């Protein structure tokens, strides 16, 4: 089968021919129709997470995908060939990922029926980003009446977090440049703060730009919410740069990071809660998200589509960021 794989950590991703995977007992073999890009895919390929995994090379990139079950391993009872499913198709120890014509997933793992009415390329954009957003709003214990700032609101996780926070009745303040204000308001943000104005005046760029954006955002939020926030979902600021966001919280408030930027013990000593969220996407969660999608309460915005062979050329642009939604790989009919 065709796949996008790396021959070693740090090697360039290439289109390769590799054997089709064979489903183990309890697994589904899925003909992938689409795969979804997430920043973690390139972090893994670069070797940034190599201490946490022992992959087999060539390692097929990617986690998220959607497709059709074509075979099942022994003891599979919930799914059958012909079922349309979406989820996370990755097993680095076997060199397997989702940027391929076929992928495998355990039936009791992160897989669910594809949301009705959704195209495979939309469903493939959901699992990691929307699942992480779901974990964030849970970890923050967001509830009706809470005021939450989402930093990184225009990206894949951020767009889902806006919607899920608003569904819980929270008052959402979202970071967005002026061109993206309508986008985040349409998803449920009540207010916006512009993290890009120093970029436009040519002051930012390079090292330290994130830190300056944080101060810029914090100043704007403090002006409209001097009493403090209940929660901050920070998808951007790295360790050592979260201070301006922490200072926005009211006593007892919570900050959640997707990039392991927080020191929960130090925050607890100041009467604040800090959670470094690592997503735990499950089949049950994906089934619940599918329900919200089918009810028209949750959307995913796909902004870039490339065929499998176009991935090596497209990846540098995706890594550079400035995402305004999800990038997906169209694999087949
Ligand atoms: N821990 C986990 O389980 C987990 C799961 C998923 C993702 N993540 C991580 O979470 C981060 C976000 O993921 P993602 O998929 O949402 O990424 P993404 O789709 O690339 O979006 C990142 C967004 O952040 C915005 N941004 C960049 N700098 C900013 C700043 N200083 N202030 C406000 N917004 C800023 C970008 O827009 P502009 O550049 O236009 O500002 C972009 O819209 C990534 O680092 C990813 O690896 C972690």
TrEMBL record:
A single GO molecular function term of this UniProt record: oxidoreductase activity
CDD domains given in the database record: MDR_like_2
InterPro entries: ADH-like_N, ER, GroES-like_sf, NAD(P)-bd_dom_sf, YIM1/Zinc_Alcohol_DH_Fams
Pfam family, one: ADH_zinc_N_2
Ranges where the Enoyl reductase (ER) domain occurs: 10-329
PANTHER family for this protein: ALCOHOL DEHYDROGENASE RELATED, RETICULON-4-INTERACTING PROTEIN 1, MITOCHONDRIAL
The protein, known as: NADPH:quinone reductase
Organism: Nonomuraea solani
């Amino acid at each position: 089968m065709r796949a996008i794989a790396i021959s070693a950590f740090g090697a360039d991703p290439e289109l390769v021919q590799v054997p089709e995977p064979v489903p183990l007992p309890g697994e589904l073999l899925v003909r992938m129709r689409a795969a979804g890009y997430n920043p973690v895919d390139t972090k893994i390929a670069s070797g940034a997470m190599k201490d946490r995994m022992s992959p087999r090379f060539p390692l097929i990139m990617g986690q998220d995908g959607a497709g059709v079950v074509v075979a099942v391993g022994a003891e599979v009872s919930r799914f059958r060939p012909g079922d349309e499913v979406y989820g996370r198709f990755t097993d680095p120890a076997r060199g397997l990922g989702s940027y391929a014509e076929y992928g495998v997933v355990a039936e009791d793992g992160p897989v669910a029926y594809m949301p009705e009415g959704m195209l495979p390329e939309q469903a493939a954009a959901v699992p990691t980003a929307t699942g992480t957003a779901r974990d964030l709003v849970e970890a923050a214990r967001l509830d009706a009446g809470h005021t939450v700032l989402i930093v990184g609101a225009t990206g894949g996780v951020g767009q889902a977090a806006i919607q899920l926070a608003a569904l819980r009745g929270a008052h959402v303040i979202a970071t967005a440049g002026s061109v993206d204000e309508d986008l985040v308001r349409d998803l449920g943000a009540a207010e916006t703060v512009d993290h890009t104005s120093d970029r436009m005046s040519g002051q930012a760029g390079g090292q330290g730009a994130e830190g300056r954006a944080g101060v810029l955002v914090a100043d704007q939020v403090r002006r409209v919410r001097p009493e403090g926030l209940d929660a901050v979902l920070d998808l951007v600021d790295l360790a050592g740069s979260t201070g301006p966001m922490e200072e926005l919280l009211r006593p007892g408030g919570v900050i959640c990071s997707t990039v392991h930027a927080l020191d929960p013990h130090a925050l607890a000593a100041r009467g604040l809660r800090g959670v470094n969220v690592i997503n735990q996407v499950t089949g049950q969660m994906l089934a619940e998200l599918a329900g919200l999608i089918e009810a028209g309460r949750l959307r995913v915005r796909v902004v870039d589509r490339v065929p499998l062979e176009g991935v090596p050329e497209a990846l540098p642009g995706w890594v550079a960021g400035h995402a305004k939604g999800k990038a997906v790989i169209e694999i087949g009919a």
